[in-house]
Design brief:
The chain is of the alpha+beta class. It is built from 5 helices and 6 strands.
């Protein structure tokens, strides 16, 4: 996925989480983004679909599932997580409270978290766990 597309998709998720968004534009890239993000139209406005019953039970896991928009690897032991604006600290605190043994620590900005895994295998395990939580939303 290109950097421009990822930025655009993160912005779309941020927009729909803060205000109703309506469009009559038939631009193909916007349509592809809406499909990729699995957005639904409710009363003329796009939003994330209703939660599935398989929602995580632990409140910190729920915070992660709701707050992480994307996760990418960077090197052999670093993960970069993107959240809506202002949510990175809350998500990082949730990760820290869970005290996953594979996580050495987190650093949070406004909408980005750097997560340091203990080694490459730990990075792969944390990545799978995060993607599983993200899929539950």
């Amino acid at each position: 996925m290109t950097g421009d597309r990822r930025k655009r998709q993160l912005r779309i998720l941020e927009l729909i989480s803060t205000r109703p968004v309506r469009t009559h534009v038939t631009q193909s890239s916007v349509s592809r983004d809406i499909t990729f993000l699995k957005l639904v139209k409710v009363e003329g406005a796009y939003q994330r679909p209703a939660r599935i019953a398989h929602e995580p039970e632990h409140p910190d896991e729920r915070r992660i599932a709701e707050g992480v928009l994307t996760v990418d690897t960077a090197g052999e032991a670093l993960l970069v997580l993107h959240t809506p604006a202002g949510e990175a600290n809350r998500v990082a605190v949730a990760i820290d409270r869970l005290a996953w043994p594979d996580v050495a620590g987190t650093i949070a900005g406004d909408d980005t978290i750097f997560l340091a895994a203990r080694h490459a295998q730990a990075q792969a395990r944390v990545l799978r766990t995060l993607r599983k939580l993200m899929a539950s939303r």
